[in-house]
Amino acid sequence: MGFFDTLLFPFIWFDSAILVGLEWLLTRMGLPDTSGWTWVLAIVGLVVTLRALLTPLMIRQIKSQRRLQIVQPELMKIQAKYKGKKDQASQKAFQEETFGLYREAGANPFGACLPILIQMPFFFALFRLLNTAETVSRGEIEPLGLFTQELASKMAGSEIFGAGLTSTFLHDQDLSAKILSLILILVMSGTQFITSHQLMRQNMSPEALNSPMARQQQILIYVLPIVFAVTGVNFPVALLIYWTVSNFWTMGQQFFVIRNMPAPNTPAEEKYKARMARKGKSALGVQLKNPNFMAEREAAQAQVQARVAGQRAQPKSKKRRKKR
Predict the structure, then answer these.
(1) Are 167 and 236 in contact (CB under 8 A)?
(2) How far apart are CA 165 and CA 177, in angstroms?
(3) Which is deepest, 42, 100, 209, 233, by most CB within 10 Å?
């Protein structure tokens, strides 16, 4: 077992346990263990299970992102307040005010990244599991997790539409495998494009769309499907099925998020408010931890400004003026 497999071992074991368990369940229901459709259903079930288990993390990620977007104007005020101040005291005060803002608003800047980091090893492990099924079946490498050589051989010998699940577009001469691989690559690239496109056009504000980062993302919308198409010719059909199903899940999940938890000042938010108005409901969306946070913060800032203005004026009483 190589270093990469050792590092991913617990995740490979977890993924393989779900895959093997689903295959066992499907065969007990009467499906043949050498049928490609049995393994396709097991792969689909594995993707759905993993994504469903990670859905609570995704929801936390979205809520954290939305809260960060809501308090962005306040964050910009703090940044402007300490702009150009490089001394240690100012930097410390800047950090305290920034993290105090996050804490009061219930927004976690790291919460947007954490779910993605948690998901990555599970999907790397699944990628490794499906991509090595052919070599495991031939005994060239050790079985990974609970996915034994016998099970790998059954997957390697199974077919759908005349194409083997471990066949690839580039390395197999079988026409059925090439056609199925090509269809899956096109669908996979198309779903990736639609997912990225709807995010850019529906869930980004006009200011964000005009930023340099948005322009880079617009380039990636067209580049990533090409990258997937180029790399996909090397992947077995089983892995392409996993990737395609995962993309469909992501596309549907994002559609739900954009529809029900849109980002502030975006076309999606306008549609959400109009839809809620037609239903006679309040368009709440994602709320801050303290719904009155922004109003309270503005009131506190107004009091500070009034106190500072009063200190600068320093009015004198009539008695003091008469004495002079």
Answers:
(1) yes
(2) 8
(3) 42
pLDDT in tens, 36-53: 899 999 999 999 998 898
- C-alpha 300: how far from its chain's center? 36
User: Structural domain of residue 256, as residue ranges?
Assistant: 161-263
159-169 pLDDT, tens per residue?
999 898 988 88
Residues 20 and 46 both lie in one domain: yes
Q: Is residue 291 part of a domain?
A: no
Q: Domain for residue 285, yes or no?
A: no
How far apart, in whole angstroms, are the C-alpha atoms of residue 185 and residue 235? 10
pLDDT band at 324 (very low <50, low <70, confident <90, very high): very low
Same domain, 165 and 151: no
Give yes or no for a contact between 107 and 294, defined as CB atoms under 8 angstroms apart: no
Return d(Cα 22, Cα 309) in angstroms, integer: 70
Type of residue numbered 289: K
pLDDT of residue 126 exceeding 70: yes
133 and 232, same domain (yes or no): no
| Residue 316 maps to a domain | no
Helix (H) or strand (E) holding 160: strand 159-160
Res. 310: pLDDT tops 70: no
